[in-house]
Amino acid sequence: MTIQTSKLSDPAVRAFVSAVNAHDRQAFLDTLTPDATMSDDGSDRDLADWIDREIFSSNGHMEVDNESQGGRSLVARYRNDTWGEMRTKWSFTIEPDGRISHFATGQA
After folding, report:
1. Which pLDDT tens digit goes with each residue over 36-85?
2. DSSP assignment of 32-64
3. C-alpha pair distances (Å), 87 with each of 9, 33, 37, 75
4. H or E segment at 89?
5. Could you tell me if 107 and 87 are in contact, meaning their C-beta atoms sit under 8 angstroms apart?
6. How far apart (Å, rounded) are the C-alpha atoms in residues 21 and 42?
7. Is the pLDDT confidence value at 105 over 90?
8. CA angle 47, 74, 31 (to 5 degrees)
9. What's the pTM?
């Protein structure tokens, strides 16, 4: 059963998922620290390149199936125009200022 984005526990993660689903690049970037990093399937990736390719130029969309660790770990059905839909896991490192300094994703 999908968790409505507005019901996600962690405010930073909720803003992240909302921005992805709204295709709002600026709102997405506002969820991140200036030096944020990310990894995909265990490999560090160039954040700007990855978000352009995997989210914004390919209509990325997340439907969260469950959350754990206070909402900082998700299992979601992620889809985009490049890869179609896949079951993915996401984890987030949130700084004291409420922004994301690192997120990791990969197939679940």
Report:
1. 999 999 999 999 999 999 999 999 999 999 999 999 999 999 999 999 99
2. EEEEEEEEETTEEE-HHHHHIIIIITTT-EEEE
3. 20, 26, 22, 7
4. strand 84-94
5. yes
6. 24
7. yes
8. 45
9. 0.96
